[in-house]
Amino acid sequence: RVLVTGALGQVGSELIPALRGLYGSEEVLATDIRRAPPGHPALEGPYEQLDCTNGPALLEFFVRHRVGVVYHLAAILSARAEAEPQLAWQVNIEGLHNVLEAARQVGAQVFVPSSIAAFGPSTPRDPTPQDTLQRPNTLYGVTKVAGELLCDYYAHRFGLDVRGLRYPGLISYTAPPGGGTTDYAVEIFHHALRYDRYTCFLAPDTRLPMMYMPDAIRATLELMQADPARLRHRNAFNLTAFSCTPAELAAEIQKHRPGFKMHYEVDPLRQAIADSWPRTLDDSAAREEWGWRPQYDLAAMTKDMLEKLAERALKEA
Ligand code: VAH
């Protein structure tokens, strides 16, 4: 059966329905440390609370449910990890180690997301190559690099089929953003619909790699279904669809909502994090080794986000 940890997060909220569509609801176990709020999509199939930092409980869960594939999404994201670095290390590294150990013992395939945060200020930023210097200066970034290395170790030392993607900033309308630095690109749409204005916590020219969630979900499933013999890299592939700045995103929204106003109040902490990250990514390894191709550019993402949020507002009205 398929296990998803971090089911209530931004990726989990969309990956679970996609996996249940592929394998059937009863085959996909959604878990998170918190209880799922009533009506959450994860509750449309099996849901359990599960704390990935509890190794014995995790192994018991893998054995009891005969877990054959695990999408390990439970993590503390960049901005929150700076506020709570000890907790972030426990969740992001001890939790990952517990998942890799359980998967090794039962022979499960593993997906672990990395991030553009796995790069730091000394990494080439424009574009950032697949194989390059990785000296991130955020705790989240440290756990992403350590996680990539731990996953590669489990692949070559134990033959574990573990694969990963360095996600760019992800934009979606299903789940609220959770403590990330790229959250502005999600919040801006909710504010545009509700107030026709948004006060952005990053400077107007902060260029970051981004992706619409439907592309990220498809990339995740395509990587996990790829022929392992073709994979020269495993943890983790650079992945991107487009790069944009807050000013460019605001201008794209204004094409649909001419009255939308953008303001800026830079948050020094999150600006420093964003300034240490890539501006654009080279994802040629993903394209060559498992056929990656994005489908949504900035214009297509913006159009779809505004349409979907407007539809939902109508339904809830
Ligand atoms: C964050 N959305 O902002 C996450 C992601 C690329 C950034 O890792 O922390």
Automatic annotation (TrEMBL):
Domain NAD-dependent epimerase/dehydratase residues, every copy: 2-226
Pfam families associated with the record: Epimerase
Molecular function in Gene Ontology: L-threonine 3-dehydrogenase activity
Any one GO BP annotation for this protein: L-threonine catabolic process
InterPro entries registered for this protein in UniProt: Epimerase_deHydtase, NAD(P)-bd_dom_sf, NAD(P)_epim/dehydratase
Gene3D superfamilies: NAD(P)-binding Rossmann-like Domain
Protein family membership: Belongs to the NAD(P)-dependent epimerase/dehydratase family.
PANTHER family: L-THREONINE 3-DEHYDROGENASE, L-THREONINE 3-DEHYDROGENASE, MITOCHONDRIAL
Name of the featured protein: NAD-dependent epimerase/dehydratase
The organism's taxonomic lineage, starting at the top: Bacteria, Thermotogati, Deinococcota, Deinococci, Thermales
